[in-house]
Specification:
Blueprint (H helix, E strand, L loop, with lengths): L3 E4 L6 H13 L6 H10 L7 E7 L2 E9 L12 E7 L8 H15 L4 E6 L3 H5 L4 E8 L2 E9 L2
Antiparallel strand pairs: 1-2, 2-3, 3-4, 5-7, 6-7
The chain binds coenzyme A (COA).
């Protein structure tokens, strides 16, 4: 079956994706699981915020968000590609690549000229997909790479 990518709020997968995101990032940020779910339910797009889920045969396999803000150190930058996460058993099948492309398409459709992201350790993945390193920042006390992608 083909991969289907759509806003998670339109699917039955909000609790699953909320649990993944909460375990991966949101809990460390001091947010409850209920707050994570609430964000996903209102991140419907097409303008940011829009939280996407990738599913195959009705199973959620990954997620990514087109967001208004992401890195507290850089409130001057917007919008962002954020929260790219693929289930461990579904990795290396091109799912993150498809999710990144879907967020880029949302941004382009909104007339965005420059999209931002930050990553602690996945800069080569994004660089291989057209993203450019913009500099170094800090997130929760750890170094991260700031990157951007321009659209004509
Ligand atoms: C980073 C992450 C999102 C990548 O997800 P993924 O779905 O495995 O990514 P993809 O499959 O699109 O690409 C990963 C690699 O698999 C390769 N690949 C893609 N399809 C493939 C296939 N069918 N067979 C073999 N390899 C494949 C890609 O070429 C890529 O390699 P490259 O980086 O050398 O180009 C995932 O590992 C993850 O969720 N990590 C934890 C959270 C995280 O770090 N998120 C990013 C925060 S910035």
């Amino acid at each position: 079956m083909t991969l289907l990518i759509r806003p998670v709020a339109e699917t039955p997968h909000v609790p699953t994706i909320a649990a993944w995101l909460h375990a991966q990032w949101w809990a460390a940020g001091g947010y409850s699981l209920a707050q994570t779910e609430s964000f996903l339910r209102q991140a419907t797009g097409p303008a940011a915020p829009c939280a996407l889920v990738a599913e195959r045969d009705g199973l959620p396999l990954g997620t990514a968000t087109f967001d208004t803000d992401d890195l507290p150190a850089r409130p001057d930058l917007s919008p962002w590609l954020a929260s790219v996460l693929v289930a461990p058993e579904a990795r290396r099948q091109g799912i993150a690549t498809a999710l990144v492309a879907a967020v880029e398409e949302l941004a382009i459709a909104q007339g965005v000229r420059r999209l931002w992201l930050f990553t602690p350790d996945q800069a080569p993945f994004y660089a291989a997909r057209g993203w450019v390193r913009s500099g170094a920042e800090e997130y929760r006390g750890s170094p991260v790479v700031l990157m951007h992608r321009d659209f004509p």
